[in-house]
Amino acid sequence: MYGEDSTEYRRFEDALLKDVGAPVLLAPIEQPLGMFHDAIDAGFKRVNERIDSGENAHIKVSHRKGERRWTQVYPEVDETVNGSFYGQLPCVGIADLLGFLPAAPVS
């Protein structure tokens, strides 16, 4: 590959990465992976804290036989996410739906 602004003989990837200006791309892989690991770990801890404190109302915690278990709280039957609009539409099979698509041109 050819880099128009290149004045030195260097690998294209090296020139491209330096021009992008993202130091995380130039760092050894262990550094960004370590940062990402720490961020994910902190996120997991925060989620667990929210579940333990009851702050997360969408998770129900129960204790069975000395073990703590959690389940997701589902909305009641009358709580519809999409409202009554989709309830008014008829059910249609996939084959019938595909009949409305234009035929693909043959090349």
Structural class: alpha+beta
Model regions low in confidence, pLDDT < 50 over at least 5 residues: none
List the helices and strands in order: HHHEEH
Q: Into which percentage range does the β-strand content fall?
A: 5-15%
Largest sheet, in brief, is: 2 strands, antiparallel
Overall pLDDT score: 78
Number of strands: 2
Number of helices: 4
Distance between the termini: 32 Å
Strand order of the largest sheet: 1-2
Which percent bin holds the helix content?
25-40%
- Rg from Cα: 27 Å
Shape: flat
Protein name: WGS project CAFE00000000 data, contig bkir_c134
Task: Give a description of the structure.
This is WGS project CAFE00000000 data, contig bkir_c134. It comes from Candidatus Paraburkholderia kirkii UZHbot1. Helices cover 39% and strands 11% of the residues. With 107 residues, it is an alpha+beta fold. The chain has a domain at 12-75. A two-stranded antiparallel sheet has the order 1-2. The chain is flat, with a radius of gyration of 27 Å. The two termini are 32 Å apart.
